[in-house]
Amino acid sequence: MPELKYTRIMLKLGGEALCGEGAYGIDPASVSTVSEEIKRVKSLGVEIGVVIGGGNIWRGQSAMARGMDRATADYMGMLATVMNALALQDGMEKIGVVTRVQTAIEMRAVAEPYIRRRALRHLEKGRVVIFAAGTGNPYFTTDTAAALRAVEIDAQLLVKATKVDGIYDKNPKHHPDAKRFACLSYLETLNLKLDQIMDSTALTLCMDNRLPIIVLNLWKQGSIGMAVRGEDVGTLVH
Asked: What is the pTM for the complete model shown?
């Protein structure tokens, strides 16, 4: 068994991780791929919490631009994250990974309510815990929910898994000369104002609690395993 630098992590996924090549919806093949990657990391002996966004189902920013109330749009986004959490739970349990979904908004017919001590017990028993419905409050992103839950469960690392292999000084899709950072401080990351990577509230919460963040490519097989072993992968914010 390889030596681990981090034994309990919070994995933050965007809802787009589940939609495959499509712009919206849930693609079973993508759910299966993500589930297999989580299983590989868990097999190393890592305790894993997961927060997943809802952008593949509902984009609150678009609705707000057309006049919807911000709080209403945010609550609808929270419900979208629950749908994604249930889909991911189904995908992982099909491959033998025992999983629990906890929601910040109570809906006992489909998931447990979020209770910190119960979540810790699940992790200690080797279960993957998916935290859904954000923080339960409007005006907070799922990035902030991931940072908050990570601090609450005493995670040693927040892994932000995206479609790019780290933080760049400009968009690498549009700028071939974009520079990837291997390491940044919290303040440097805040000053770069890279809202597409992580919002300032989440970054500040991590900074205040000295929780390191690694931004990496979810689709590069083994990248999360490299991160928990402390190997050079993605961009480390600390």
From this structure: 0.94
Is position 226 within any domain?
Answer: yes
Cross-strand partners of 13: 52, 161
Q: Are 134 and 75 in contact (CB under 8 A)?
A: no
Per-residue tokens: 186: 């919290």
Side-chain half-sphere CA neighbours of 234 within 13 A: 31
pLDDT in tens, 174-227: 788 888 889 999 999 888 876 667 889 999 999 999 999 999 999 999 999 999
Are 158 and 12 contacting, i.e. CB atoms less than 8 angstroms apart? yes
Q: How far apart are the C-alpha atoms of 199 and 205, rounded to whole Å?
A: 10
| Spatial CA neighbour of 92 closest among 53, 47, 44, 127 | 127
The reply to whether 146 falls in a domain is yes
Q: Is residue 33 domain-resident?
A: yes
Could you tell me which of 133, 154, 151 has the C-alpha nearest to residue 142? 133
* Residue-wise pLDDT tens digits, 43-93: 999 999 999 999 999 887 777 778 889 999 999 999 999 999 999 999 999
What local confidence, expressed as pLDDT, does residue 118 receive?
Answer: 98
Residues in contact with 109: Cβ distance below 8 Å, sequence separation at least 6, in sequence order: none
Output the domain CATH number for residue 109.
3.40.1160.10
- Domain encompassing residue 135: 8-237
**131: which 2 tokens?**
């935290």
